Amino acid sequence: LTEYEEADNLVGQMMTLKQLGKHLREQNKFADAIDIHTRGLEIAAQLCDTPEIVYALNNIGTNYRRMSMLEDATTFHYRALKYCEEYSDKETYGAKKNKVVSLNGIGNISLRLKDYETADSVFRAALKGEQELGSALGQAINYANLGAIYEYNDQLDSAWVYFRKSMEMNQLAKSDLGISLCHGYFGELYELQNNIDSAIIEYRKAYAMKDMIDAW
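Above: the chain's sequence. Below: its structure in token form.
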């Protein structure tokens, strides 16, 4: 980053700030991540780079969401979605991916606020987008989110179906984080079904992967 700053290379700074912010978020340094991603957003706006503006807005929204600052998170994810809807490019992989990430952020906030109807609608739209993109990881995330809605509504059979679909896609994507999370979801469902021995086995499988996943 220092080298790019000394060379007055704005594109290099923007791309480095994006990765640095993600790295800080993975270390649970959310306030620092927001500062870094905000710097990246300012450069993206200066360069009139719409895809990177959307990327930065979603990153800032995710940072706020991790801090449970849902009002701020909502603002940034909706700003990102507005850019997606107004941007002339709606067909490239990057444009479609930015939109489903925006939808996913809004869905997660709705889920946290227990607005399950909105969350379900948004997650299904995001899942459709990830299926069109052929993204196993994106599908895994949205299957898990839909599974969570069924879990919260005490529809555990349906929750199992969606969490198992999520595990299948995470394995396909070779996502250690996703696989670990799915073991945790399985543990929750077993616990809700009062199958404590199986729940403990799943939680231990999740925890055994702690060195392969981020701090959060």
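The chain has a mean pLDDT of 94.
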